[in-house]
Design goal:
Blueprint: H1 5-19, E1 33-34, E2 40-41, E3 59-70, E4 74-84, E5 88-98, E6 118-131, E7 144-155, H2 160-166, E8 171-183, E9 188-197, E10 218-230, E11 233-240, H3 247-252, E12 264-274, E13 277-285, E14 300-309
Antiparallel strand pairs: 1-2, 3-4, 3-14, 4-5, 5-6, 6-7, 7-8, 8-9, 9-10, 10-11, 11-12, 12-13, 13-14
């Protein structure tokens, strides 16, 4: 993905913000927050809602910045999204992953990984609402349903030789369908997402694997629940199942479970101090991420995200 795309989309977003109406009919937090890949939803999984504050007939824009840290890794992510008529969402995110522990891979083979290596990834997302309306259908059992895709391009730097050894690709596309049900009377939001993917660690370790049968995509479910303590404050949890494409390859190379990938989960609190600003703080458990270089430690830590939407 070319580097000039993000500034162009940011410029388009600024124009959209000027065109969007000052007051919209969207309720606080019902449009979700920005996920790490830029689409509207929870922190680690998209929802069927369309981001920004735009409602039917409007054009809206949102931007976000996120920082997550665990015992051995850190991720910085930022991006922008456009919402059109509360039906179509276009998003672009950039991620920077601190993969410094990967330097230990040089002890396995002469990969040439440099100290302090970072992995960059760009994510271009598109989401389209197919049926239902989370707010207007809140008094029925009909959820809002959307289909989306996330095209990811990885720049691994000196880790390219490792990805070559693993037989992974540096670009891939996830396809997903989400259903979001808002129960206003109970102050409850439920979401289920089914993702068709072959991404390793969300794509940061490439896509697919040289292991037999591990290059193809598989269906992975994701779930979210949020409870509104008051109109501008919500608490919730997410669980995201992950493919484990690399472990078999590591085992065949005599590395045991050194390349194992675990499911992701979090507990979050989201606060909207105004209609245009939301802040999210979460405890995250990302399981083991290349446990062969982190002494098999589970990667638990924090997630902090800020979003501005119009």
């Amino acid at each position: 993905m070319k580097k000039h795309l993000l500034p162009l989309l940011l410029t388009a977003g600024a124009l959209a913000a000027g065109a969007a109406q000052a007051d919209t009919g969207k309720l606080l937090l019902t449009g979700g927050v920005s996920s790490i890949t830029g689409s509207a939803g929870g922190g680690i999984t998209p929802w069927a809602v369309i981001g920004t504050n735009a409602t039917e007939g409007e054009l809206g824009v949102s931007s976000y910045a996120t920082r997550a840290g665990t015992q051995d890794y850190a991720l910085t992510s930022y991006g922008v999204a456009l919402g059109y008529k509360d039906r179509v969402e276009l998003s672009l995110a950039r991620q920077d992953f601190d993969a410094a522990p990967a330097f230990a891979l040089n002890g396995i083979a002469p990969f040439g990984v440099v100290p302090g290596q970072h992995i960059q990834m760009d994510v271009l997302g598109l989401k389209v609402k197919l049926a239902g309306d989370a707010i207007l259908d809140a008094d029925t059992w009909m959820p809002q349903i959307a289909v989306g895709l996330e095209h990811k391009q990885v720049r691994p730097g000196s880790l390219q030789s490792v990805l070559d050894f693993l037989g992974t690709q540096t670009s891939g596309t996830d396809v997903y369908v989400s259903a979001t049900k808002l129960l206003l009377g109970q102050g409850l939001l439920l979401n289920g997402t089914l993702r068709y993917t072959n991404a390793n660690q969300n794509g940061l370790l490439g896509f697919g694997s040289a292991a037999p049968g591990k290059s193809r995509r598989s269906l992975q479910p994701e779930f979210s629940i949020a409870y509104l303590l008051r109109p501008n404050l919500a608490v919730g949890a997410e669980y995201r199942f992950k493919p484990n494409n690399l472990q078999a390859l590591g085992a065949a190379a005599g590395l045991g479970a050194a390349l194992r990938e675990d499911d992701w989960k979090d507990l979050f609190i989201a606060w909207a101090p105004s209609k245009n600003v939301s802040l999210t703080l979460a405890y995250v458990d990302l399981g083991r991420i290349v446990p062969g270089v982190t002494r098999d430690r589970r990667q638990t830590g924090y997630y902090l995200s800020a979003q501005v939407a119009f």
